Amino acid sequence: MNPTYLAADFGGGSGRVIAGSLRTEGKGYCLELKEIHRFANRPVQMGDYFVWDFPSLYADMLEGFAKAARQGLDVVSVGIDTWGVDFGLIDSTGQLAGMPVCYRDTHTDGMPEIFAREESPQAHYAEAGIQVLPINTLYRLMAMKRADDPRLDIARRLLFTPDLLTYFLTGHEINEYTIASTSEMLDARTRSWNEPLLRRMGLRPEMMCPITMPGTVVGNITPRVAEATGLDSKVKVVAVGSHDTASAAFASPRNYTTDRAAFLSSGTWSLLGVELDEPVLTEEARRAGFSNEGGVGAKTLLLQNITGLWILQRLAAQWRERGEDPGWPALIDEAEAAADTAVIDVDDQRFSRPDAMEQTIAAYCRETSQPSPSTRGEYVRCVCRSLAERYRKAVEQVNTLLPRPLEALQIIGGGSNNRLLNAMTAEATGLKVFAGPAEATAIGNILLQAITARQINSKEQVTDIRQL
């Protein structure tokens, strides 16, 4: 049997366990992917906080592993990737100190402004190189500190979401580089924790683990996990690009004839950027809102975090609640036939936590003296057009930071299936647009596991990808 690698891929709304195996094909390898288990991810309001249901996520991951074992797959390793910034705290007994808080929780509102009064934004960016967003880990910890949250006092370790899942699989505590880079607490040049900053914020640097780079074998699954899942106790857990953007960017194909290309990881969030060897920590980059996030191979991903398909997801959820569920292909058909109406600012804060997305868009249109959409197709077309315009702005801004302007854009992730958005993006940016793969995150996760296992030497050896 071919060795099988399991990717546990967690998104803000759902998670999947995907199996990947390589077989020789011609002069290269074909990567065969099979979805083993899919599950919902439902953050819940508990008291004053909006939290992740971590025990359910962990149990669903184990169920995916168990299904793989029951199918008789020769699993040699697993890798975990998730969204960024969120974390759990481990106490002195090795247990989770409360549910991890979701980045959409409101307790970090206003924290960046307070931070900017205490620290120089220019000097801070020259160290961290991260776009200031209230969701960043730094501001969650600030909010906890200012509220005298007792969990900070009892915390022995801070583990980001994929690190937390890895801990309960292996018993080993790590902070993987790409996920740590989303925190705004890492020194972008040294790729290590900014301990002076942590101390100034009243935080204990010893809560953090030494940085682990992608491609590191963390350890084997514990005997308890092996017993619960039916996997062999020799199955390894590999630190992949644990931030889903890093895994997706690693899988981004180079099937065009220019190196002047950006990637657009299109999902709940849109992340548009380029892969570089070193961070760009200039004032120009700061003012344009660029982040220098970690990539696989000690790369830097110079990118902008842009609200992505979240707006469309919330519209679809609202329509389902009132009994309308035509499905995405039909919605795209409706949008292609619809008329243009308004262009909205997708990054406007009101769209991040709306009570009702349809009404929120209509109110924005009234305030900006634009015609409001009136049909489902017009709403979808409005959002796609607005995203394309936002991508155009991001491309123009990144071009000011590069020696030569971009010529191509590779759209990866689930949003690469949205043909209307792809076409509008090509028209708005003037770039050659290539779409796919939709499963880029899982593919990047699995490819790095295969490289770590030395089945292949580089991702370029994989010449074909097939969905089983």
Automatic annotation (TrEMBL):
One Gene Ontology term of the biological-process aspect is: rhamnose catabolic process
The coiled-coil segments of this chain are none
InterPro entries attached here?
Answer: ATPase_NBD (IPR043129), FGGY_C (IPR018485), FGGY_N (IPR018484), Rhamnulokinase (IPR013449)
- Matching Pfam families, A to Z? FGGY_C, FGGY_N
Gene3D superfamilies per the UniProt record, alphabetical: 3.30.420.40
Top-rank lineage group of the source organism? Bacteria
Q: Which UniProt keywords apply?
A: ATP-binding, Disulfide bond, Kinase, Nucleotide-binding, Rhamnose metabolism, Transferase
Every Carbohydrate kinase FGGY N-terminal domain range: 5-250
Domain Carbohydrate kinase FGGY C-terminal spans what residues?
Answer: 263-452
Q: Name one GO cellular component term.
A: cytosol
**Gene Ontology terms, MF aspect:** ATP binding; glycerol kinase activity; rhamnulokinase activity
Q: Which family does it belong to?
A: Belongs to the FGGY kinase family.
Q: Tell me what this protein is called.
A: Rhamnulokinase
Source organism (scientific name): Paramuribaculum intestinale
